[in-house]
Amino acid sequence: MKKTYDFAVIGGGSAGYNAARVAAGLGLKTVVIDGAEDLGGLCILRGCMPSKSLLYMAEVLHLAQKGKTFGLKIPSARADMPAMHARKKRLIAEFAADRVKSLNAGKFDLVRAYARFLDPHTLELSNGQTLKSRFILIGTGSTVSVPPIPGLLDSQFWTSDDVLDLDFIPQSVIVLGGGIVACELAQFLNRIGTRVTLIQRSPNILRDHSEDAADVIQQAFVDEGIELFVGTKLEKITRNARGIAVAFQHDGKQRVRRAAHLFNALGREANTAKLNLAAAGVRARPDGQVITNRWQQTSASHIYAGGDCAGPHEIVHLAVQQGEIAARHAAGVKGIKPVDHALLLNVVFTDPQLATIGMLAKELDEAGTPYLSATYPFNDHGKSMLMDANYGYVQVIAEPKRGRILGAEIVGKDAGELIHAFAGPLAMRATVFDLLRAPWYHPTLAEIVTYPLEEIADKIKR
């Protein structure tokens, strides 16, 4: 007998779990189907939580090694990778156990299997069963992309999974890519004592962010000893008994760099290839990403998608929102609102961190939208100077007539925390004058945002 459900979720990660939680709470008979060896999803097991655990440990190490800067005598500080690895595993085990407990709480069924479509309402499971559902959500996440670079497929490269699971300090690593994962983990490796070469094809690292922001991170990387190449063309990768060699073009010259290990951080792609989407009438882009509307509906209106497999941004809090919206839409809840991409929030956990929210200068320029902007540097701000946190700046962007906040970009110490000074005001459509009416304590890092706010306010008054 086929089991029948109101709402079936393929994948128990951030989008899938939260969709199931909301659907069950709205009275829909719900099932989560997840065949992964370990439950929890990318964020908990192989993404946000393990990476940020390790990045923070490496930051503590970096500060200890800078003891002389602060007048401290710290004879030596070095990474103990087995201990760091063990601490990370303990933390992740706690996070994962909490998610597994929630998945098994009985509010919805949990089936430990993989699924593929037989028709628009029927799923075939890897355990031999089939089930039918009125509504289905695809939340299968993403997988590492392997671009067609000669030799890459046979190079025995590491992925982020491998780097996050290290229990030793690699002697040398070549990092391919300049996205968020590449940059965060390249700096981690460098700080624990690995010789790191980062090779990026685009003219700047972090190509989805502004050139000004990327320039700050690039300078910090070079200052810390990372060998950095941008604007390259990868030609060939070879491996022998001594390690890996990468041949590439840079500044019109052919170059070769060698290392013990290769880290492929050239991006991720939607994990949808085995779902048999055609049988369900679900359309996808050439890269496998499922096409959705503002309610997360696919081309088959009863089938939804959320998280990395749907995009357009691979960010956990958006995946959660997408899953919840899909479940409420399927349940017929009135008055729901789609994800507001004008409030897009993004954080890169390099050091210095890079954080953005809302509409930025490049987007506004492309749309022909007028705006005012002002910038203030960290190396002229009291609190950041005494912390020896001199990289970066705060930029505020506002509407030119009333001063309504449109967006902000922060590159600097704890930018991922500071950016939230704009999250509530942006959602409430506040102006620079509204923010300046609030108290800002001195001396804090947060008060740095008042300087560009004041500059914009002065421009409007004039």
Describe the structure.
- The protein is of the alpha/beta class and 462 residues long.
- It has three domains: 3-144 and 269-330, FAD/NAD(P)-binding domain (3-Layer(bba) Sandwich), CATH 3.50.50; 160-266, 3-Layer(bba) Sandwich (FAD/NAD(P)-binding domain), CATH 3.50.50; 342-461, FAD/NAD-linked reductase, C-terminal dimerisation domain (Enolase-like, domain 1, 2-Layer Sandwich).
- 32% of the residues lie in helices and 24% in strands.
- It is built from 15 helices and 21 strands.
- The protein has helices at 14-25, 41-46, 48-65, 81-103, 160-164, 180-192, 211-224, 277-280, 316-330, 361-367, 382-386, 415-418, 423-427, 432-437, 450-461; strands at residues 3-10, 30-33, 109-111, 115-119, 122-125, 130-138, 142-144, 172-176, 195-199, 227-229, 232-240, 243-250, 253-259, 261-264, 268-270, 303-305, 345-348, 353-358, 372-377, 393-398, 405-412.
- Strands 1, 2, 3, 4, 5, 6 and 16 form a seven-stranded mixed β-sheet that branches. A five-stranded antiparallel β-sheet has the order 17-18-21-20-19, with helices on both faces.
- Strand 17 (345-348) and strand 18 form a beta hairpin.
- Helix 1 packs parallel to helix 9 and helix 3 (48-65) packs antiparallel against helix 4.
- The protein is globular and about 70 Å long.
- The model has no long low-confidence stretch (mean pLDDT 95).
